[in-house]
Structures are given as C-alpha cells and as structure tokens.
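Figure 2 data, in text form.
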Amino acid sequence: LVIDVQPEWYGPTTDTYKHFPNFAERLTSLLARCRAKGTHIIHIRAKYDTSPEVESDYTRWHQQFRRFNPEKPLDLSGDPTPWARELDDGSESVFNKPTFNAFLGTELHGYLQERGINKLILAGLITSVCVQMTANEAFMRGYEVNVVSEACADRSRDRHEAAKLLYSGYVWNDIPLESV
C-alpha cells in the first residue's frame, strides 16, 4: 500500500520534504522493486469531503481536526504526487480514503480478501498518522503488516522514530527496502 503520497504532504515547502529529502528516491525505488516482482500495488489517497452538506461517520472528525490543526490542509483533491502515481495500464489500484485509516469508509478490506492478499507492505506519508493508523487496522483485521520505514516520512524525524519505537515489532514489522 502506497499511502498518501500527495503534494499536500510532500513538496518543497513541507516539513516532510525538509526532514526526509530522500523520501522520493526511496519510494520510487520501492515502487520499481515491487513492479519488477509483479507485486500488486495499491495506492491510497486522502480525499476528505469537507462540504457542509456531506456529513457521515467519516466526516465528524473534521471539526476537531481543524480545532487542533488550523494550519493544516483538510480540503484535499486526492491527486497524487506525479512521481508516485499509479501506472496507466490499469495494473495498480487506487482507493480514496475519507479518514486517516485506509480501511474505514473504503472497500479496501473486501478488495484484499477477494484477491487472497493477507500480507501487506506499507510505505508513504505520514508515518505517525495515516501509515500507522492503516497499519494498526490491518493488524487488527489479521493481516501480516510490514512497513518500509525507509520509504516513509513524517513532519519530523522525532515523530517518525517515535512511531517506529512504539509500533515496530508490536503491530508491524519494519522491513528494509533492499529486502522487498
């Protein structure tokens, strides 16, 4: 799963870019390795509908998020960063998620089950938020969860390392890029 590699989270003016300048190179390398091996790649994108007429179990968190994080974007297009987009041949899937967790409000679990996929490799943005929440949910649903933390980034090195310290070896395996 390639999580939230979108311009809102990674670009020249973002903290993730400043603290993880090699992220694009590492994620691109991971994608190339997976494509060469024929690994099924699924792109997960944040697409939050914040219009007032749309309210659901997946939008109620918006008000709290804005209260805690008034400077952070919440209206997201779901557009990918060009270097991390899916292939044009239709071989890679895309799921737009309405929350930090790729399983909530999407058909991801059913999609994986239909294809007999029970081992996941996660990479992307933001390590301590969307990557971690998706990893935790996958673990709770019985998937073997592997995170390539070298191909993840966060708003600071400390947050990235804290997520690894708390959850690697507990709910997910931290696997090296070279092992994929």
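Caption note: The two ends are 13 Å apart (CA to CA).
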